[in-house]
Design a protein that fits this description.
Layout lengths: L1 E2 L14 E2 L7 E5 L4 H12 L4 E5 L7 H6 L7 E4 L2 E4 L1 H9 L1
Parallel strand pairs: 1-2, 3-4
Antiparallel strand pairs: 2-4, 3-5, 5-6
């Protein structure tokens, strides 16, 4: 479903859960929703009203495609148009810039 911090009501359906406007999300947040680090990044995305899509990943990461985005197998990580970022504090600093 599509959500936004300014519009908590669902506005449509998407392949994964997305928090955005009706446009396609630019960022993809990957991780485990029970993780405090995942939720810290998600909070910043919602607080800054940044469109994003959530994708659940399980540990340990063994999929070569996911390891290409997070070489150390850490979650959460964010896929951007410029590439992937991992380490929650680095992600937050990127989002705040």
């Amino acid at each position: 479903m599509l959500f936004s911090a300014t519009n908590p009501e669902p506005v449509g359906l998407c392949r994964d859960r997305a928090h955005a406007t009706k446009e396609a999300p630019i960022l993809q947040l990957c991780g485990i929703p029970l993780s405090n680090y995942y939720n810290k990044v998600k909070f910043v995305l919602l607080e800054h009203d940044i469109p994003f899509e959530e994708t659940k990943c399980s540990l340990p990461i063994s999929d070569p495609a996911l390891l290409a985005d997070s070489p150390l197998g850490k979650i959460p990580f964010v896929k951007t148009e410029e590439g992937a970022l991992f380490e929650s504090q680095a992600i937050i600093e990127y989002l705040a810039a």
